[in-house]
Each structure stands twice: as C-alpha cells, then as structure tokens.
Design goal:
By secondary structure, the protein is α+β, with helices and mostly antiparallel strands. It contains three helices and 14 strands. Strands 1, 6, 7, 8, 11 and 12 form a six-stranded mixed β-sheet that branches. A hairpin with a 2-residue loop joins strand 2 (145-148) and strand 3.
C-alpha cells in the first residue's frame, strides 16, 4: 500500500454561511475529501482490474431453452388431444345408434306357460246390426203414389185403386168376397201399349210379405214395388212395368225370409 502522506495542517474550512456548490461534471467534486477514503477506493479499483471474468455457459443456456420449448409444446399437444377427444365424444353422443338385426339362432321349443290367475276383461258389447229396411212401403189411406209413365196407385180399406195416362180409374176390391185373405195368394192386372206394359195386383193372406217377382219371356225377372196400409192388414198392392214382350209373366210371392208363399203361372 502507498504510505500515508504527511499530515498537513488543516486549512481554513468553508464558511458555513456559504452555500455548497457541487458540480457533477467537475472531477474535483467527485474526489472524496478524506485522503484515506481516496486511497481505499484506489486499492479496490486495482483489485477489480486484476479479476478475469469466466466464460459464458452458452451450452447450458441452449439446453435450458430447448427444455422449456419441449415442455410448452407437450402442454399444447395435450390440450389439442383433449379438445379433439371432447369433439369426438360430442359427435358420438349426438349420432343415433341403430340396433343390429338379431342373428338367426337355433330354433327353440317354446316353453309351456303356466296359467296364472287373472281377472278377465268383460267381453266387448257388439252392437246389434240395424234391422233391414222393410221391403214394403207403408202409405196412408188414399195417398196417391206415382208409379211412372202416367200411372198412379192408391189404397183404401176397400182395396186397390189405379189410373192410367188417360185418367180412367179402376179398382180391385178385397172386400167383395172374390179374394180369400185367409190363404196366401196373388192377383194380376196389366194394361199398356206397344212400348210399355203396366202390371199391378193384390197380394194377401200374409203379414210378412217380402217380395213379388215377375218372370217374363226367356226367364227375365222383374221385382215389383209393394204398398200397404198402416197396421199390417194382411194384404197389399204390388206394381211393376215391363216391355211389351212380357205382357203375361208368371208371378211369385215370397215372405221376408225368402220362402215361396204363392205363385201364379204365366197366362
């Protein structure tokens, strides 16, 4: 170390009344006033100049950087895989699964079921079919019925009445004793011209008349219309129209079950 300089008597100090004026740009202002402190600073400066810095550990710095990048890449990859797995799970959950058809297997013998006690449901009440419409038209006393082609028919307690296109009226009585209403029977009257024949008559001796049928030339059949007064008096009137070739057909009276009650052969 440098030997200490001889002590010099202190000079006159600064006047406390004078302001301190330090100029950082002036080197004289940076030198400490104490000579011992100045010597110490100079010794530290020389020791610092004698220190040689070691080499920078570049390899270790690179390894640390690569390790950090790998850790960050692994974390991002894990997040990506988790996101894809979540999306796939959502798609699978939203996609309907159709069951596969059952595979054919060996035929099995059905097991015998053991009957168990149960309350049987009451049988369903099947409504009865509506009654078939009556084949007989019930008309009031003296009610005029249009039979077509200018012909008109009506009934009274006396019997059958009818009139033709010329307006001439006829009657066939059931009360004059010429008709036996105690036995099923049928009568026949016909009028017409070269184009059309009007047939009519009485049926009697039954309260279940179902059909009067005319059989003409070649077996041609015509079903007549039936009229009765209210209360089923046991007789009624039938009428029908045919071509001129069936002027004298055969007649048959059937009940509502289709059973033949009476017939009148062709003339």
């Amino acid at each position: 170390m440098t030997p200490a300089s001889p002590t010099t008597p202190p000079g006159p100090g600064p006047d406390p009344a004078d302001p301190v004026d330090l100029d950082p740009a002036d080197p004289a202002d940076l030198v400490p006033a104490d000579p011992a402190e100045a010597d110490l600073r100079a010794a530290f400066a020389r020791a610092a100049l004698d220190v040689t810095p070691g080499p920078v550990p570049l390899a270790a710095v690179r390894r640390a950087g690569r390790s950090r990048r790998r850790s960050r890449t692994t974390a991002l990859s894990a997040l990506s895989v988790l996101a894809v797995a979540t999306a796939v799970a959502a798609v699978v959950a939203l996609t309907p699964v159709r069951p596969s058809p059952p595979l054919p297997g060996p035929a099995t013998t059905p097991s015998t079921a053991v009957p168990t006690a149960s309350h049987a449901a009451p049988p369903t009440q099947v409504p009865a079919p509506p009654p078939a419409p009556s084949p007989v038209r019930v008309v009031a006393r003296g009610e005029r019925v249009n039979a077509g082609k200018g012909w008109t028919v009506w009934l009274t307690e006396e019997g059958k009445h009818w009139s033709g296109p010329d307006g001439y009226e006829n009657v066939r009585s059931v009360t004059d004793g010429n008709v036996d209403t105690g036995e099923p029977g049928v009568s026949h009257q016909s009028e017409g011209d070269a184009t059309r024949i009007f047939h009519s008559g009485l049926y009697y001796g039954t309260r279940t008349a179902g059909r009067v049928e005319l059989t003409g030339a070649g077996g041609r059949r015509t079903v007549a219309t039936l009229l009765e007064l209210p209360g089923r008096p046991g007789w009624g009137v039938w009428y029908a129209s045919t071509g001129p070739e069936d002027q004298a057909p055969g007649l048959a009276l059937y009940d509502r079950a289709g059973q033949l009650l009476a017939e009148l052969p062709p003339m």
